[in-house]
Amino acid sequence: MLQAVIVPGSLPLAQEALARHPGAALMAGGTVVMPVLNYGTDSFDTLVSLRNAGLSGIFISDGKVSVGAATSLSELQERPELAFLGPAIDTIASPTIRNMATVGGNLFVEQPYGDLAVCLIALGATAAVADGGAARFEPVESIVRRGVAKGEIVTKISFTLPAPGTFKFTKATRRAFNSAAIVTVAAVIGLEDGKVAECRVALGGVARHPLRAKSVEEKLLGQIFDRASVMTAAEAAGSDIEPFDDAYASAWYRRRVTPVHIRRALIGE
Predict the structure, then answer these.
(1) pTM confidence score
(2) 68 with 84: CB under 8 angstroms?
(3) Closest Cα partner for 210 from 183, 230, 236, 250?
């Protein structure tokens, strides 16, 4: 049962609070933690909130983006330079939730949620992780797969702005708004002379964590970017995914439609 909520005024104070309360839960926007409390399934007696820890803000310079982990999804949508992420963020929950949900928190949302994390993997984003000493930097792709150790705090996410028109996204859901993913696809596709010179494809909803579709990337690199090559590459996703059954879709259905949605994301049909 929850006994205390600590709201540190800085990152060092947040780390100190976690060290004093090893069993405490870390909270950013609260959209993941609060339902756990409401359902009475919590196993912690202390919450450490990052609300006032100075971990929010968006900084963009020379094509490089740095986003504080406590920055809300709505704040991302307000930056014109990040407009390419707008369609993806619009598919996440509702405006009320996006006002609270944070960039860092989205890395730790259980599937089939966490669509921003899928986008960040496609962008090749890295996360700064504070562990009591000097911060280390780790690919978001690794963070969503392994998580972080107790007491560690993700402080910011960094990535390079994609060239105009290279970022691709689609999300298949059971309803248009406020729905979890059946399949989420995000990708960055760079072309030279009509051939794929740069390729990162990330998937959500088709495994226990967001992942890169490396088999798809390998099939696409160096190929002419047309419907035939995309369809061939999309079929290779079967060796990357580990779909599951849930209330939204069966594992069979997710596996069956993943190539379709990769094609739709990449070429829009």
Answers:
(1) 0.96
(2) no
(3) 183
Tell me if 15 sits within 8 A of 151, measured CB to CB: yes
Instruction: Tell me the C-alpha distance between 119 and 159, whole Å.
Output: 11
The per-type count for the chain, helices as H runs and strands as E runs, is 11, 12
Structural contact between residues 49 and 5, judged by C-beta atoms closer than 8 angstroms: yes
Q: Which residues pair with 199 in a beta bridge?
A: 189
pLDDT in tens, 114-151: 999 999 999 999 999 998 777 899 999 999 999 999 89
* Nearest-10 crossing angle of helices 227-235, 251-267: 150
Q: Residue 243 CB: number of other CB atoms within 10 A?
A: 25
Residue pair 213/189 in contact by the 8 Å Cβ criterion: no
Query: 52-103, pLDDT tens digit by residue?
Result: 999 999 999 999 999 999 999 999 999 999 999 999 999 999 999 999 999 9
